[in-house]
Amino acid sequence: MSNASGNPKTALITGITGQDGSYLAELLLEEGYFVHGIVRRSSTFNTDRIDHIYTDPHNADARLFLHYGDLTDGQNLTNLVLNIEPDEIYNLGAQSHVRVSFDNPVYTVQTTAVGALNVLEAARQLNRKKPTRVYQASSSEMFGDVLETPQTEKTPFQPQSPYACAKVYAFHQTVNYRHAYDLFACNGILFNHESPRRGETFVTRKITRAATRIKLGLQEKLYLGNLDAKRDWGYAKDYVRGMWLMLQHDTPDDYVLATGETYTIRQFLDYTFEHLELDWKDYVETDPRYFRPTEVDLLLGDYSKAKNVLGWEPETSCKELAQLMVDYDLELARNEAVRATIAQGKSA
Ligand code: NAP
Ligand code: GDD
């Protein structure tokens, strides 16, 4: 992929260490980009999801570069953007856990709302000397207590959590920067998307990790909250392609990415445990800690616009998604069981 000057394109990804950031980085490298990612300093390594694509930056053929930064540090973001001069900026960084946003509302707003504004402001400054394009990771969570079903780009928002309120702010600022400054800025309104790289405290991965550990005798019970909520679950790998397509289009716009199907947590439990020839009702118990002060009961997306304009379609069903996550997690559980056996042998 070349830019207007005929050079390979350069992209900057915030949240590169997260689920989506890692898949997007892989896709952009495959497309021939130079990829820069922002990572947070932490006391333990937080680059597991991208270690397999990272090479020594001193190598002549290195194409992935990491920089310390934080969405709450606007000056740092602006310096990075002005130095790197990316053709495309993907703002995927966020405090992305809805339940946690009730515990940390101010931090969530600083990262997820003001952080997005910091990215837009940095992009606006770069755009004055070199054209750049911005993708903002907006969320179906913004529809909240939904006002219509299925939800489209025209459905009004009714957010139900500090996280969702922060994402609504970032959505509107992205549209505002597009109108006010002629910045090429797009919102992807993505419905839930999962993968073997999904964080282990989101419900699908929590289920597939626990079920596979139960299968191998490493865990006895799985504690969950509301099993009746419905989600439109897709595969993260399919969705990052949609993000990229939004920034390749001639004009900036906002798009829903979804599967057009919705399932309860119970149905996801069915798909997971059936694949392991187990019955989840023997293992799952309710823990009120996992209920939320306000819940989003139903999400179901209509992705017609993305299909018609971008040619994007999801390729993985919810059942296939559950099965590929189980297959991956079963391997992790097997390795854990082997390590436990070796440790037992050593102590005997
Ligand atoms: P994720 O796995 O939780 O990744 C979040 C990323 O943001 C991580 O790299 C994290 O870094 C980084 N981050 C958090 N706080 C930061 C800060 N203050 N400064 C810089 N980076 C920070 O999320 P994901 O599932 O990949 O989702 C990507 C984006 O899409 C998020 O904005 C999320 O809200 C949004 N979204 C996700 C979904 C979904 O279903 N997955 C749906 C709609 C929208 P660490 O690794 O250091 O924690
Ligand atoms: N996390 C979690 N843990 N959720 C549970 C549990 C549990 O033990 N038990 C039931 N649930 C229910 C939640 O109440 C919610 O209704 C549903 O499972 C999905 O929860 P999550 O997997 O945490 O995802 P989410 O829908 O709240 O948010 C995700 O999707 C959004 C897009 O709609 C996140 O990825 C957000 O960042 C994203 O914007």
Care to describe what's here?
Its cofactor is NADP(+). Pfam families: GDP_Man_Dehyd (PF16363). This is GDP-mannose 4,6-dehydratase. InterPro entries: GDP_Man_deHydtase, NAD(P)-bd_dom, NAD(P)-bd_dom_sf. It catalyses: GDP-alpha-D-mannose = GDP-4-dehydro-alpha-D-rhamnose + H2O. Helix content is 42%, strand content 15%. By secondary structure, the chain is of the alpha/beta class. Helix 4 runs parallel beside helix 5 (162-181). It has a domain at 10-198 and 236-260 and 295-314: NAD(P)-binding Rossmann-like Domain (Rossmann fold). The chain has a seven-stranded parallel sheet with strand order 3-2-1-4-5-6-11, with helices on both faces. The radius of gyration is 21 Å and the shape is globular. It has ten helices and 13 strands. Strand 5, helix 5 and strand 6 (184-190) form a beta-alpha-beta unit.
Secondary-structure map:
Blueprint (H helix, E strand, L loop, with lengths): L9 E5 L4 H12 L3 E6 L24 E5 L5 H11 L3 E4 L6 H6 L1 H23 L5 E7 L22 H20 L2 E7 L2 E2 L8 H13 L6 E3 L5 E2 L2 E2 H13 L6 E3 L5 E2 H11 L8 E3 L17 H7 L7 H30 L1
Parallel strand pairs: 1-2, 1-4, 2-3, 4-5, 5-6, 6-11, 7-10, 8-13
Antiparallel strand pairs: 9-12
The chain binds NADP nicotinamide-adenine-dinucleotide phosphate and guanosine-5'-diphosphate-alpha-D-mannose.
The site of guanosine-5'-diphosphate-alpha-D-mannose has 22 residues, from helix 3 and helix 6.
